[in-house]
């Protein structure tokens, strides 16, 4: 068995459609007689010698519907038919080009993935792109293949829909397994890969991820070769069936139990085998299950949260060896039978529509009337995302019939990942006096509720998914149109989130840079001594000219070089500010500038282990590109589980934010720096929150071109000489030579004083003469 790994979500969008007629009129059989023109289905476009007609290996007909595109389906029988208009047109049997050299054109399994068919033909997988009308063989699968399974994403453009591909799967506990492999499936409802193991008539599921990988699901009887149907809607409902067995699991195989059969008001069988019926065809949608038996009977049950029994409809002439069941809408079933055309080499399809709601109104079935009038919620058939530390609020409205009481049930398919809390209250009355019951549902990551044991919750570092379903307990089978409300919840990255660097004081605001000039093909030069294109801190061989990208970076933030600095990182969602991020993040100058460092070292940051840095990240061969430091490969040096020894305590600590007060310190250099910033805290968000921004460093005086030794040595000599003179001159004046030296200078000083005094006297007389006249 091979698993088709891909699309990461699948929810069928139900659209209202009308089927004409009701009751007996809808059970009348009709068939189409028009030939579909063009493409591979037109008889004129085929040459029988160039193609091999495909056929299904099983004696029972199967029908596979595309869960998103309701008109697309694949019929598997003695001939295989592919339709894009819900079997309204006549169809030619599907053939594969002889150039593919498939050998025996026997199909053992098929799956519709987006716009392609995947067919297992003669133990190999072939891909038919029905949009491009082309065939291809799968690449990379070397071993024989028996079956293929997969799922579809019905939310186009959503990041949860990641495409499809085959990938090799290795089960960690494979050495412990006993028995044979019954299948490999990806359960989006659990975010787990499930492995079906069969041994001595019993089967059970093993799972790939914590916490389910430590044990197995409960064993169940595995008689014969069971076909396994994963119902659409991502609710974790599995249907196991063959001719004498019908089993259902509502939690992705953890619990599997037989379906009870109800024939009449007083007869209840515990299993299909006890009821002594032989299954021919099975069909299911998100909410319902229908079974066609070789005894010419149609059975129906609801696939609600709680188990329900198959109810037998009145016998009709519906069965044939080529008949297959198909749901066309909620409560609408068709029995399809291909009929060869009398003129063309094509087949028409006999359609027998059944209105389930009309049949259940038959008094002979004694079905109770539905107790509910309305079950409504805006979240139905929608998809939501819950990121780390986020919360989602949903509301629903429930109205019972007069005199009736209802009990709502809310369930998540993956309780290991998603936790809930529900509150119900009365919210007014209808015009008829019925009480309105409103339900408030709070959803958040199970890890953050704080109510579950860590051994129960999924790993918080791994994005997961779940569905939430709101239904009514013990809902009557007659509530066909009152379907459960379901939403798909992605516990992962919220794509509406982004980070922005706060820029309250820019270089343009202070007049240092001109915004007009920055937009006019502005460029600047980075000296070769200041950058390394390989981000290793080594000097480059030549200067670098950088064209400034104003449209992306705006005006640079202004930073004084001699002040420790840390950018203020803000979280925004859908254009609205959310908070200032305090989680751990890292910086890297995108052009390789290394003229900055950090205020803390590994030791002063109180690291228990050797911290990571950009050099160690880039040296890791598993990290691609220079900007590979992110939440997935970050390991905190404060983590008690980090056992890397602290060998170099004095290296700069390059992580900002978080529990430390680390900051950036710029060297004595003015200019523009363009930084890449990445949030590396794995517990802040599932998103890779990253951006680039620019700063302008100012205030640094140019470095002197004269070597420091040339100025420092003469200055030190002059200082020492001054100190010596201050000590030696007073002592010298008391000696004989000192007295002669002193006398030599006394006579000139006296003459100078007399001359100065005479000069001052004349000035006084001259300045005072006007007062005497």
TrEMBL record:
<keyword id="KW-0969">Cilium</keyword>
<dbReference type="InterPro" id="IPR028751">
    <property type="entry name" value="CATSPERD/E"/>
</dbReference>
<feature type="domain" description="CATSPERD/E C-terminal">
    <location>
        <begin position="521"/>
        <end position="737"/>
    </location>
</feature>
<keyword id="KW-1133">Transmembrane helix</keyword>
<dbReference type="InterPro" id="IPR053814">
    <property type="entry name" value="CATSPERD/E_C"/>
</dbReference>
<keyword id="KW-0217">Developmental protein</keyword>
<dbReference type="GO" id="GO:0048240">
    <property type="term" value="P:sperm capacitation"/>
</dbReference>
<comment type="similarity">
    <text>Belongs to the CATSPERD family.</text>
</comment>
<dbReference type="InterPro" id="IPR053813">
    <property type="entry name" value="CATSPERD_beta-prop"/>
</dbReference>
<keyword id="KW-0221">Differentiation</keyword>
<keyword id="KW-0282">Flagellum</keyword>
<keyword id="KW-0732">Signal</keyword>
<keyword id="KW-1003">Cell membrane</keyword>
<keyword id="KW-0472">Membrane</keyword>
<feature type="domain" description="CATSPERD beta-propeller">
    <location>
        <begin position="163"/>
        <end position="352"/>
    </location>
</feature>
<keyword id="KW-0744">Spermatogenesis</keyword>
<keyword id="KW-0966">Cell projection</keyword>
<dbReference type="Pfam" id="PF15020">
    <property type="entry name" value="Beta-prop_CATSPERD"/>
</dbReference>
<keyword id="KW-0325">Glycoprotein</keyword>
<dbReference type="GO" id="GO:0030317">
    <property type="term" value="P:flagellated sperm motility"/>
</dbReference>
<keyword id="KW-1015">Disulfide bond</keyword>
<dbReference type="GO" id="GO:0036128">
    <property type="term" value="C:CatSper complex"/>
</dbReference>
<comment type="function">
    <text>Auxiliary component of the CatSper complex, a complex involved in sperm cell hyperactivation. Sperm cell hyperactivation is needed for sperm motility which is essential late in the preparation of sperm for fertilization. Required for CATSPER1 stability before intraflagellar transport and/or incorporation of the CatSper complex channel into the flagellar membrane.</text>
</comment>
<dbReference type="GO" id="GO:0097228">
    <property type="term" value="C:sperm principal piece"/>
</dbReference>
<feature type="domain" description="CATSPERD Ig-like">
    <location>
        <begin position="373"/>
        <end position="491"/>
    </location>
</feature>
<feature type="transmembrane region" description="Helical">
    <location>
        <begin position="695"/>
        <end position="727"/>
    </location>
</feature>
<dbReference type="Pfam" id="PF22850">
    <property type="entry name" value="CATSPERD-E_C"/>
</dbReference>
<protein>
    <recommendedName>
        <fullName>Cation channel sperm-associated auxiliary subunit delta</fullName>
    </recommendedName>
</protein>
<dbReference type="Pfam" id="PF23747">
    <property type="entry name" value="Ig-like_CATSPERD"/>
</dbReference>
<keyword id="KW-0812">Transmembrane</keyword>
<feature type="domain" description="CATSPERD beta-propeller">
    <location>
        <begin position="51"/>
        <end position="162"/>
    </location>
</feature>
<dbReference type="InterPro" id="IPR055451">
    <property type="entry name" value="Ig-like_CATSPERD"/>
</dbReference>
